[in-house]
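stuck on this chain:
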Amino acid sequence: MNYSLAFKVAWRLLLYPALIAAAAGFVFFWLYAHPKRFLSSIDPGSLGLAAEGMKLHTADGINLDAWFIPHKTSKKSVIICHGYPMDKGDVLRLTSFLAKDFNLLYFDFRATGRSAGFFSTGGAREVRDIDAAVELLKSRGLGGAIGAFGFSMGAATVLLSRNPAIRARALDAPFADLAEEMDYIFSSFGLLRRPLLFVMKGWSLVLMGVNINSVSPARAASGLKTPVLIVQGDADTQVPPENALKIKAANPAAEVWLVKGGTHGGNRDNAGAQYENKIACFFREALK
């Protein structure tokens, strides 16, 4: 028997699939971590809101594009966090009703919209973006009563944030765990799902320094002592309702509102005025 030939064949049978897996994993990692920029056509002016354009500066040196919508009398503020891979304009219609009672600060997360930054990290580094928003409000004398609203990845990031200045969190469709959410997203890949995700996680660790398995909004929620409201559509197929229940299990004090017929990004459409009243009342009460 030619052992040398057998060794060469076996070596290639192992090496080539590994190289293909590494390349495929890199492609998917790149598509998700460096998303195509989405720029909304809507701005505060189109809704009759006067806004100041500005730049926020993160602790790790990234400039974020932002809108500040001041309230004439209120000292209470809400930071608005959009979902992946969209921009701040994508949640403007969803949240503009809050301008009646609060100062509002919208911004594009790193690597999205008009902000700088190369990698989107699913919330791991985006918490620094929220910190930059908090610092901007403090610089304007508005650090005493700050709430945060987030949608989807933005909601997850609000949960991940440990910033002590945030006194209330309203969340529309947050995922409970990034690794589990990715597993769900790639469920249609069948047997290829696990090896593909394994390689993607490896690239994330090597190129971004982010361990995807450690990005857990539910685990972060367990340590929160401030009010949490979770709005979750029962027909959401992108972030299923089980996510809200996992966060609730980690933080029993959190309030979960299941919107009948609500889809991902469609809870306000389904709930109508109740959506606005629920979230506005939550912030008014929590930011007294």
